[in-house]
Amino acid sequence: GQNIDQPTEMTATEGAIVQINCTYQTSGFNGLFWYQQHAGEAPTFLSYNVLDGLEEKGRFSSFLSRSKGYSYLLLKELQMKDSASYLCAVSPDNYGQNFVFGPGTRLSVLP
Amino acid sequence: ETGVTQTPRHLVMGMTNKKSLKCEQHLGHNAMYWYKQSAKKPLELMFVYNFKEQTENNSVPSRFSPECPNSSHLFLHLHTLQPEDSALYLCASSQDLQAKYFGAGTRLSVL
After folding, report:
1. Could you report the per-residue pLDDT of A57-99, keeping only the tens digit for each?
2. Mean pLDDT, chain A, as a whole number?
3. Which residues of B touch A102 (CB under 8 A)?
4. Is residue A91 less than 8 Å (CB to CB) from chain B?
5. Closest by alpha carbon to B89, among B27, B8, B30, B35?
6. Which residues pair with B56 in a beta bridge?
7. Which residues in B lie closer than 8 A to residue A45 (C-beta atoms)?
8. Neighbouring residues of B11: CB distance < 8 A, sequence distance ≥ 6
9. CA-based nearest distance A42→chain B, Å
10. For B20-65, what is each residue's pLDDT tens digit?
11. Could you tell me what percent of chain A has a pLDDT over 90?
12. CA A77 to each of CA A83, A104, A107, B1, B37: distance values in angstroms, whole numbers, following the listed order
Protein backbone atom coordinates (compact mmCIF):
# COMPACT_ATOMS: atom_id res chain seq x y z
CA GLY A 1 0.00 0.00 0.00
CA GLN A 2 0.89 3.64 -0.22
CA ASN A 3 0.88 5.98 2.74
CA ILE A 4 2.05 9.54 3.32
CA ASP A 5 1.87 11.34 6.66
CA GLN A 6 2.05 15.06 7.40
CA PRO A 7 1.02 17.13 10.40
CA THR A 8 -2.50 18.44 9.96
CA GLU A 9 -1.90 22.01 11.08
CA MET A 10 1.00 24.28 12.04
CA THR A 11 1.23 27.86 13.23
CA ALA A 12 4.22 30.19 12.98
CA THR A 13 5.04 33.87 13.31
CA GLU A 14 5.83 36.27 10.49
CA GLY A 15 9.59 36.44 9.90
CA ALA A 16 10.24 33.07 11.54
CA ILE A 17 11.35 29.72 10.09
CA VAL A 18 9.05 26.70 9.91
CA GLN A 19 9.74 23.08 8.97
CA ILE A 20 6.95 20.88 7.61
CA ASN A 21 7.70 17.16 7.80
CA CYS A 22 6.54 14.37 5.53
CA THR A 23 7.04 10.63 5.95
CA TYR A 24 6.12 8.09 3.32
CA GLN A 25 5.80 4.34 2.78
CA THR A 26 5.30 3.52 -0.88
CA SER A 27 5.79 0.48 -3.12
CA GLY A 28 8.54 2.30 -5.00
CA PHE A 29 10.17 5.70 -5.16
CA ASN A 30 10.81 7.90 -8.15
CA GLY A 31 10.65 11.39 -6.65
CA LEU A 32 9.00 13.51 -3.99
CA PHE A 33 7.13 16.74 -4.69
CA TRP A 34 5.92 19.64 -2.57
CA TYR A 35 2.96 21.80 -3.57
CA GLN A 36 1.44 24.94 -2.08
CA GLN A 37 -2.32 25.40 -2.16
CA HIS A 38 -4.07 28.58 -1.06
CA ALA A 39 -7.70 28.24 -0.09
CA GLY A 40 -9.91 28.01 -3.16
CA GLU A 41 -6.96 27.93 -5.56
CA ALA A 42 -5.01 25.35 -7.54
CA PRO A 43 -2.02 23.54 -6.00
CA THR A 44 1.20 25.05 -7.35
CA PHE A 45 4.49 23.20 -7.67
CA LEU A 46 7.22 24.19 -5.19
CA SER A 47 9.98 21.60 -5.32
CA TYR A 48 11.12 18.17 -6.47
CA ASN A 49 13.61 15.83 -4.75
CA VAL A 50 14.78 12.52 -6.16
CA LEU A 51 18.26 12.28 -4.56
CA ASP A 52 19.13 12.61 -0.87
CA GLY A 53 19.96 16.05 0.34
CA LEU A 54 18.77 19.60 0.38
CA GLU A 55 17.35 21.54 -2.57
CA GLU A 56 17.23 25.30 -2.03
CA LYS A 57 15.02 27.68 -3.96
CA GLY A 58 14.87 31.17 -2.51
CA ARG A 59 13.06 31.21 0.83
CA PHE A 60 11.96 27.59 0.37
CA SER A 61 14.14 24.49 0.75
CA SER A 62 13.25 20.82 0.58
CA PHE A 63 15.18 17.91 2.08
CA LEU A 64 14.99 14.20 1.31
CA SER A 65 16.27 11.05 3.02
CA ARG A 66 15.25 8.00 0.99
CA SER A 67 16.56 5.51 3.54
CA LYS A 68 14.33 7.04 6.20
CA GLY A 69 11.34 7.68 3.94
CA TYR A 70 11.42 11.27 5.12
CA SER A 71 11.29 14.75 3.67
CA TYR A 72 10.78 18.25 4.99
CA LEU A 73 9.92 21.62 3.51
CA LEU A 74 11.68 24.56 5.16
CA LEU A 75 10.20 28.03 4.84
CA LYS A 76 12.37 30.96 5.90
CA GLU A 77 11.48 34.61 6.57
CA LEU A 78 7.82 33.73 6.74
CA GLN A 79 5.34 36.13 5.20
CA MET A 80 1.60 36.37 5.70
CA LYS A 81 1.08 35.19 2.13
CA ASP A 82 2.73 31.86 3.04
CA SER A 83 -0.44 30.91 4.93
CA ALA A 84 -1.66 27.96 2.85
CA SER A 85 -1.81 24.18 2.74
CA TYR A 86 1.38 22.36 1.81
CA LEU A 87 1.00 19.01 0.06
CA CYS A 88 3.65 16.31 -0.02
CA ALA A 89 3.38 13.84 -2.92
CA VAL A 90 5.42 10.81 -3.97
CA SER A 91 5.78 9.28 -7.42
CA PRO A 92 6.20 5.54 -6.75
CA ASP A 93 7.10 4.41 -10.25
CA ASN A 94 8.58 5.36 -13.60
CA TYR A 95 5.26 6.23 -15.14
CA GLY A 96 5.02 9.50 -13.23
CA GLN A 97 1.26 9.24 -13.37
CA ASN A 98 0.55 7.51 -10.10
CA PHE A 99 1.29 10.22 -7.63
CA VAL A 100 0.32 9.57 -4.03
CA PHE A 101 -0.65 12.73 -2.17
CA GLY A 102 -0.41 13.30 1.54
CA PRO A 103 -3.31 14.91 3.42
CA GLY A 104 -1.62 18.31 3.43
CA THR A 105 -0.45 20.60 6.25
CA ARG A 106 -2.39 23.81 6.84
CA LEU A 107 0.09 26.54 7.83
CA SER A 108 -1.12 29.72 9.49
CA VAL A 109 1.33 32.62 9.66
CA LEU A 110 0.50 35.09 12.42
CA PRO A 111 1.65 38.73 12.64
CA GLU B 1 -2.51 31.70 -14.61
CA THR B 2 -1.14 28.16 -14.43
CA GLY B 3 -1.79 27.21 -18.06
CA VAL B 4 -4.62 24.85 -17.05
CA THR B 5 -8.11 26.33 -17.23
CA GLN B 6 -11.20 24.76 -15.69
CA THR B 7 -14.83 25.73 -16.14
CA PRO B 8 -17.12 26.26 -14.40
CA ARG B 9 -15.46 27.33 -11.16
CA HIS B 10 -18.58 26.57 -9.16
CA LEU B 11 -21.45 24.19 -9.88
CA VAL B 12 -24.57 23.30 -7.96
CA MET B 13 -26.64 20.41 -9.26
CA GLY B 14 -29.44 18.13 -8.20
CA MET B 15 -29.06 14.38 -8.09
CA THR B 16 -31.01 13.91 -11.31
CA ASN B 17 -29.09 16.50 -13.35
CA LYS B 18 -26.48 15.91 -16.03
CA LYS B 19 -23.58 18.33 -16.23
CA SER B 20 -20.04 18.42 -17.58
CA LEU B 21 -16.79 19.85 -16.26
CA LYS B 22 -14.28 21.16 -18.78
CA CYS B 23 -10.51 21.41 -18.63
CA GLU B 24 -8.11 22.90 -21.15
CA GLN B 25 -4.32 22.98 -20.95
CA HIS B 26 -2.15 25.37 -22.92
CA LEU B 27 1.19 23.81 -21.99
CA GLY B 28 1.66 21.22 -24.72
CA HIS B 29 1.66 18.39 -22.17
CA ASN B 30 0.92 14.78 -23.09
CA ALA B 31 -0.96 13.66 -19.98
CA MET B 32 -4.10 14.98 -18.28
CA TYR B 33 -5.73 13.97 -15.00
CA TRP B 34 -8.88 14.34 -12.95
CA TYR B 35 -8.50 14.50 -9.15
CA LYS B 36 -11.11 14.75 -6.41
CA GLN B 37 -10.32 16.80 -3.32
CA SER B 38 -12.64 16.38 -0.34
CA ALA B 39 -12.33 18.19 2.95
CA LYS B 40 -9.63 16.77 5.21
CA LYS B 41 -8.75 13.99 2.73
CA PRO B 42 -5.79 13.59 0.39
CA LEU B 43 -6.16 14.29 -3.29
CA GLU B 44 -7.69 11.24 -4.96
CA LEU B 45 -6.70 10.35 -8.51
CA MET B 46 -9.77 9.54 -10.62
CA PHE B 47 -8.66 9.29 -14.25
CA VAL B 48 -5.46 9.59 -16.27
CA TYR B 49 -5.17 10.16 -20.00
CA ASN B 50 -1.81 9.77 -21.70
CA PHE B 51 -1.72 10.83 -25.36
CA LYS B 52 -5.55 10.81 -25.30
CA GLU B 53 -5.65 7.19 -24.12
CA GLN B 54 -7.14 6.44 -20.73
CA THR B 55 -4.53 4.62 -18.64
CA GLU B 56 -5.95 4.82 -15.15
CA ASN B 57 -9.40 4.48 -13.66
CA ASN B 58 -9.23 4.17 -9.90
CA SER B 59 -12.50 2.31 -9.40
CA VAL B 60 -14.47 5.46 -9.98
CA PRO B 61 -18.27 5.01 -10.06
CA SER B 62 -19.82 4.99 -13.52
CA ARG B 63 -21.78 8.16 -12.74
CA PHE B 64 -18.46 9.91 -13.57
CA SER B 65 -17.55 9.59 -17.24
CA PRO B 66 -14.35 11.14 -18.65
CA GLU B 67 -13.77 12.23 -22.22
CA CYS B 68 -10.52 13.33 -23.83
CA PRO B 69 -11.11 14.42 -27.44
CA ASN B 70 -7.53 15.66 -27.88
CA SER B 71 -4.40 16.19 -25.83
CA SER B 72 -5.44 19.71 -24.80
CA HIS B 73 -9.01 19.10 -23.64
CA LEU B 74 -10.50 16.92 -20.94
CA PHE B 75 -14.10 16.62 -19.82
CA LEU B 76 -15.79 14.99 -16.85
CA HIS B 77 -19.43 14.15 -17.50
CA LEU B 78 -21.60 13.88 -14.41
CA HIS B 79 -25.00 12.20 -14.04
CA THR B 80 -27.16 11.04 -11.15
CA LEU B 81 -24.58 12.13 -8.59
CA GLN B 82 -24.88 11.64 -4.84
CA PRO B 83 -24.44 14.27 -2.10
CA GLU B 84 -21.16 12.62 -1.09
CA ASP B 85 -19.79 13.52 -4.52
CA SER B 86 -19.69 17.16 -3.43
CA ALA B 87 -16.01 18.16 -3.57
CA LEU B 88 -13.41 20.17 -5.43
CA TYR B 89 -12.58 18.54 -8.76
CA LEU B 90 -9.12 19.38 -10.02
CA CYS B 91 -7.74 18.90 -13.49
CA ALA B 92 -3.99 18.62 -14.00
CA SER B 93 -1.55 18.09 -16.84
CA SER B 94 2.06 16.96 -17.02
CA GLN B 95 4.81 16.08 -19.45
CA ASP B 96 6.39 12.72 -18.61
CA LEU B 97 7.90 12.84 -15.12
CA GLN B 98 7.69 16.57 -14.68
CA ALA B 99 5.55 18.16 -11.99
CA LYS B 100 1.85 18.27 -12.47
CA TYR B 101 0.25 21.63 -13.18
CA PHE B 102 -3.19 22.06 -11.74
CA GLY B 103 -6.22 24.05 -12.72
CA ALA B 104 -8.09 26.12 -10.14
CA GLY B 105 -10.75 23.43 -9.83
CA THR B 106 -14.51 23.21 -9.95
CA ARG B 107 -16.28 23.39 -6.59
CA LEU B 108 -19.21 20.98 -6.97
CA SER B 109 -22.20 20.84 -4.65
CA VAL B 110 -24.76 18.07 -5.11
CA LEU B 111 -28.11 18.73 -3.48
Report:
1. 999 999 999 999 999 999 999 999 999 999 999 988 766 567 7
2. 93
3. 42
4. yes
5. B35
6. B48
7. 99-101
8. B19, B21, B106, B107, B108, B109
9. 4
10. 999 999 999 988 999 999 987 888 889 888 876 776 666 899 999 9
11. 80
12. 13, 21, 14, 26, 30
Select from A29, A94, A97 the residue whose CB has the most chain B CBs within 10 Å, as the one to mutate to test that interface: A97
Which is higher by pLDDT, B25 or A100?
Answer: B25
Closest residue, chain B, to A96 (C-alpha): B97
- Rounded Cα distance between A22 and A88, Å, is 7
Query: Hey, is the C-beta of A43 within 8 angstroms of any chain B C-beta?
Result: yes
- pLDDT the model gives residue A94: 67
Q: Residues of B with CB below 8 A from A35's CB? A: 102
CA angle B76, B86, A45 (to 5 degrees): 65
What pLDDT does residue B97 have?
Answer: 59
CB contact under 8 A, B33 and A45: no
- The shortest CB-CB distance from A97 to any of B2, B43, B48 is to B48
Taken in order B97, A23, B34, B60, the sign of the CA dihedral is positive
Give the Å distances, CA to CA, from B64 to A16, B58, B81: 45, 11, 8
Q: Are strands B10-13 and B106-110 parallel, antiparallel or unpaired?
A: parallel
pLDDT band at B98 (very low <50, low <70, confident <90, very high): low
Instruction: For residue B35, give the H/E element and its range.
Output: strand B31-37
